[in-house]
């Protein structure tokens, strides 16, 4: 497929073990072209997630500029990075990035996002698998981008479809919880948003055997195996699953296989204060209530369920294809 026919993707990310999985999944997709990787705080500080994005793109020959973005949430204080999930270095503390020092490309992630979208009207999908701060900043810098993007696909939120609630708190998913004001800004902007939240991603489990098979198949699978030993262990203890959740991969899979997802339409708001801070709530279209904070906001799509096995299979096929 010629590059001009491919879907252009800005990958906004906080690598992060499942972010690394998603980036390698994207590399394997012939119908997608990465226009930029933009980084933000989340699984580690921005300096670390940027270094990791640079390391991953260079090690796996992904030809794309990496732009560093926000280092803190819009309004609230930055909480501690979850080293117990992704390691101090964000990639499982196996020493992958030790002594790796390459500078990101010039410019702030939010500015570059705006430029790329304006230069390619109707062609760019933002795939955001991290706190939504860069997207909110981009909207503030130029609200006009809302009508120019093709789609905004997010790994974020937990909408209690199928009873699934939070992972950062009992009601809040981590990416939304890390910057609830940014998430509310992104969900209430007048642009298309599809959210693939914990409702779906927590059912997309690559088993220990899946990971072992991929590890014996080539460098990408071996690398993912190495960095995900502690991650898998955490999921085994915390979620009682024999493997780990492919959160960010599931959102990436939506770009190439949307038929795997069942979506619900309705306005989405995010709680920005109090004990439920970071909770994401969808008011389904057609449900009638009294006046509420959801009124006047355009509908967004939220994945309620999906073909979980199909998503895991797509991931395995992608990583295998990288050799
Ligand atoms: C999300 O939070 C991060 O820790 C993961 O990379 C994923 O994007 C899951 O809640
Ligand atoms: Ca992530």
Describe this structure in words.
- It contains 13 helices and eleven strands.
- It has 323 residues and is an alpha/beta fold.
- It has one domain: Alpha-Beta Complex (Inosine-uridine Nucleoside N-ribohydrolase, Chain A), CATH 3.90.245.
- Strands 3-2-1-4-5-6-11-9-10 form a nine-stranded mixed beta sheet, with helices on both faces. A two-stranded antiparallel sheet has the order 7-8.
- The longest helix has 15 residues, at 308-322.
- The chain binds beta-D-ribofuranose and calcium ion.
- The site of calcium ion (CA) has 10 residues, from helix 1.
Write a brief structural summary.
This protein is 37% helix and 19% strand.
Topology readout:
Elements: E1 7-13, H1 17-27, E2 32-39, H2 46-59, E3 66-68, H3 83-86, H4 109-119, E4 124-128, H5 133-141, E5 151-155, H6 174-178, H7 180-188, E6 193-196, H8 198-201, E7 205-207, H9 208-215, H10 219-227, H11 229-238, E8 243-245, H12 247-256, E9 261-270, E10 280-284, E11 300-306, H13 308-322
Helix pairs in contact: 1-12, 1-13, 4-5, 5-7, 9-10
Bound molecules: beta-D-ribofuranose and calcium ion.
